[in-house]
Amino acid sequence: MRGVVMYAPGDVRVEERTDPTIVEPTDAVIRVTASCVCGSDLHPYRGVEPLGEHPQPMGHEYVGVVTEIGDQVSTVKVGDFVVGSFWASDNTCDICRTGYQSHCVHRVLMGTIGTQAEYARIPLADGTLVATPGQPEADLVPHLLAASDVLGTGWFAAVAAEAGPGKTVVVVGDGAVGLLGILAAKQLGAERIIAMSRHADRQALARHFGATDIVEERGNDGVAKIKELTDGLGAHSVIEAVGTQESMNQAIRATRPGGHVGFVGVSHDVSLEGGELFMSGVHLHGGPAPVRQFLPDLIQLIWDRKIDPGTVFDLTLPLDQADEAYRAMDERRATKVMLTA
Amino acid sequence: MRGVVMYAPGDVRVEERTDPTIVEPTDAVIRVTASCVCGSDLHPYRGVEPLGEHPQPMGHEYVGVVTEIGDQVSTVKVGDFVVGSFWASDNTCDICRTGYQSHCVHRVLMGTIGTQAEYARIPLADGTLVATPGQPEADLVPHLLAASDVLGTGWFAAVAAEAGPGKTVVVVGDGAVGLLGILAAKQLGAERIIAMSRHADRQALARHFGATDIVEERGNDGVAKIKELTDGLGAHSVIEAVGTQESMNQAIRATRPGGHVGFVGVSHDVSLEGGELFMSGVHLHGGPAPVRQFLPDLIQLIWDRKIDPGTVFDLTLPLDQADEAYRAMDERRATKVMLTA
Fold first, then answer.
1. How many contacts does A have with B, using Cβ atoms within 8 A?
2. Deepest in the core among A64, A170, A195, A293, taking most CB within 10 A?
C-alpha cells in the first residue's frame, strides 16, 4: 500500500509500505477513507521536534472502513465506517472509565503507526473506534474526520475551560483546534465568545463557528483588551490552542480568579512561573485530549448535521500529494489539509 | 497599644503602636483575643522574602471582640466575637460572589495591617468578619483562630483537590496547613488519606486528623510509593501545602491523569515545565485561599465541637513573647504558635 513517511525535516514522501495486518486479537485494520495533516505534524517537519524513528510513518487522524478484525473485537465489524481517536485506548481501565482515554494505561499513539496511508492497523479497536450509524454521505466525511482530532481536541479544551451558559469564553489560537474550540463553546451554550486572531480568513471562520467578538492584539496588549471587555475581571473560560510561552501567559492572564484555562496546544519550551500561577487563582487543565470520550456525541451531532467542523479543511489533496499538503500548511497557505485515498 | 513589628530578618519586637481607629465607614476595630504566627511570616523572618515596609507590622490571623464599627457596618456589632480571613473582602463583587473572596476586587491583605497586636482595624468588616453564635468558651478559641487561615487554607486545598467520597487523597506537607488539609479531606468524605511526613509528632497528628497511611519517602521516591499504593495510577486528589519546586513536582507526579492538585503552599522559586504538565493530564488549582467562603461552615463545625483544628497549636505564648514564638517556629520546636492578649 501507499503511505506517507518523513525522512527528515521538510522531507515528506509517499512510498510503498507493507500492508498492515492483524497483530493482536484486539486489532482491526481499516481502509482509510480520509486522513489529514495535523499542526503537530509540522513540528518534526519544521525540525522543532525530533523524528520518532527514521523514516517516520506519519498521521494520526483518520476515518475509514473496517476490512479485518481480530478474534477479540466485538463492537465493530467488517464494512463498518468508523472514526477513531489519535490515541488508541482500551476504554475499560480505571483511567478510561473516568473519561481520560488519552491516558489509558494501555494507550498507543496512532502517530507511531501512521494513518496518512491507504490502510492502517488500529490497536484496541473496541475501545478506540466508533462506528457511524451507517455509511456516510460523501459530504459528511470531512466533518467526521475533524472529529478524530481537531474537533475532539477543541471540544475537550472548551470542557476543560468549563465553557457554558452565562460564560465569556476567550480562545487563544486561530488554528483548526482553536476554531473548533469556538464551535464547542457555542454548542456548550457560552454567552460570549472572543476569538483572538489577526487573520481575516480565520476571523471569518471564527464568526462562522460562533465567535461574538474578535481581538487582534496579542500578549499583554491582548490581555488588556480582554480585561477591557470583561469589566476589568478577565474571562470566565479561556481556551489555549497554541502551546507557546506567549500563548500560555496570555491565556492565564486573560482569565479571572476562579476561572478556567483549558490548554490543548502541545507545549513547546513553556515554563510557568509558580508565583504568578499561585496569585492568578485560575484552574488549569489540559493536555492530550481524550477525544474518545466525546466521539459518540460528536458523531451524532455531525450525523444530524447540527455542526460542520469539516469547514476547517480549506484544501483537499489526494494522498499522493502529501508533500504539497505539508508545504501548504507550513507556508500557511492552508489552515488544515485533508488527504483522500 | 502593644503590637509586633519586624525590623529585619530575625529581628521581631513587640512595641508601642498607635491605637487603630475607624478610617473608612466600612471598617471595624477589634480587640484581638488571639492571633498566631504563620508559616508565611517565617519567609521575611528567614530573609527569603523582602519586608513590605520597615518596620513591618506582623500578623494576619485573628479572632477577637468588636470594639467599634464604622457607619456603614451592619452585619457585626460592638461586643460580637468574630473570626475573619487574612484577606479583607467586600463579599459582594463578582469575584467574591463566585467564592473567590481572596481575589476580591477591593481586597486588603491583613498582613499589611498586622493582627499580632492588642487591637486591629478590619477593613470591609461586613464582608470580612463572621460573628460566632455567642461568646465562645475559652477552649474553643484556638479552634476558631485556626479557622482564620490554616484551617480555611487546608479546607480550600482539599476542595481544590476535589477530595470526597471514594477518593484517595495525598497530602504533601505536614505543617499546620497540610495537617488541616487532612482534617478537611476527612470531613469531605475521602476514603483514604495518605500523609507524606517523616516526623513522628506530625505523623501522630496526621493520624489524629484522619490520615489512613503515612509515606516517609520524598521526591520521586515518594511518588513511586504513592503509585505503589494506588495500583500504579497515582492519587485522585493531592494537596500541596509547601510551595517549593520539589513539593509541586511531587504533588503533580503523585496525581493520576484526570486527578486534581490543590496547591496552597505560597510558591517560592517554583517553575512548572509546560510539557510535563501537559502530559500529566491533571487539574491544577490553588493560590491564596478564599477562607471567607468557608468560614460560616467552619465556625459551625467548631461550635458544635465536630472538629478540633486548634490541636495544631503546640505552643501558646503571651503577645509580649512574640520573638520567642518566631524563634520556636523557625527552629521547628513548634508547629504553630498561638499568641494571646
1. 113
2. A170
